[in-house]
Amino acid sequence: ADMNVFLVCWGNGSAGLDFNQAVANTRVVAAQLRLLILNMNQLGARMEDIHMIGHSLGAHTSGVVGHRLQTESNLTIGRISGLDPAEPAYEFHHEMIRLDQGDAAYVDVIHTNGAPFIPNGGAGLFQPCGHVDFYVNGGKSQPDCPSLFSGITSFFSFKNGTQHW
After folding, report:
1. Does the pTM of the predicted model rise above 0.85?
2. Helix or strand or coil: residue 89?
3. What is the rounded distance in angstroms from the CA atom of residue 113 to the CA atom of residue 74?
4. Could you tell me which residues come within 8 angstroms of residue 149 by beta carbon, excluding any fewer than 6 positions away?
5. Which domains occur in the chain, in start order?
6. Is the peptide bond before 119 cis (omega within 30 degrees of 0)?
7. In this predicted model, what pLDDT tens digit does every residue of 78-94 receive, in sequence order?
8. What angle do CA 140, 153, 19 make, to 5 degrees?
9. Closest CA to 130 of 36, 24, 68, 54
10. CA 48 – CA 56 distance, rounded (Å)
């Protein structure tokens, strides 16, 4: 089958110590991705063939793209796969700005680091947000991956979501 793959490298917008700015930047990235998908659709791409895959903040960015395409253009993405959607700043936010099962025809989510941020250092969202949610090893932490607060950065566990794909 013919397919195209687009990788969005937005490290300049997501890196650094200002996590709140990175969260705000997800909406900027989502706006640009929405325009790309609209252009692709106008050139013949079928919405049901579009599959967005996002890790951490990228999972929520994908959700915002899907939500905005539906509400502003009456178009529905075929599938979104969320790999450990970020928990800090998202746990209790409105579905409009985070990944939710309403963002695509099918949303699947893999959770690997959903232990509470305080006191456990989990960085992934534990609550279900897809049509189907997979909780690898219970979804809270992964074997041999230290806690964020152990003095060693534990994004090994957080990034495991990409390895289970």
Report:
1. no
2. coil
3. 34
4. 119, 120, 121
5. 11-163 (3.40.50.1820)
6. yes
7. 999 999 998 877 666 66
8. 85
9. 54
10. 23
How many angstroms separate the CA atoms of 67 and 58, rounded? 14
pLDDT for residue 152: 41
Query: Which residue type, as a one-letter code, is found at position 110?
Result: I
CA triple 1-73-62, angle to 5 deg: 60
159 has a pLDDT exceeding 70: no
93 close to 119: Cβ distance less than 8 angstroms: no
| 119-139: average pLDDT | 84
The structure tokens listed for 142 are 């992964």
Q: DSSP 3-state assignment of 34?
A: helix
Query: Average pLDDT, whole number, for the chain?
Result: 84
* pLDDT tens per residue across span 57-82: 999 999 999 999 999 999 999 999 99
Name the H helices within 16-153: 19-42, 57-73, 117-120
What is the token pair recorded at 143? 């074997």
Tokens of 82: 């969320």
148, exposed or middle or buried, with CB in 10 Å at 0-12, 13-18, 19+?
A: buried
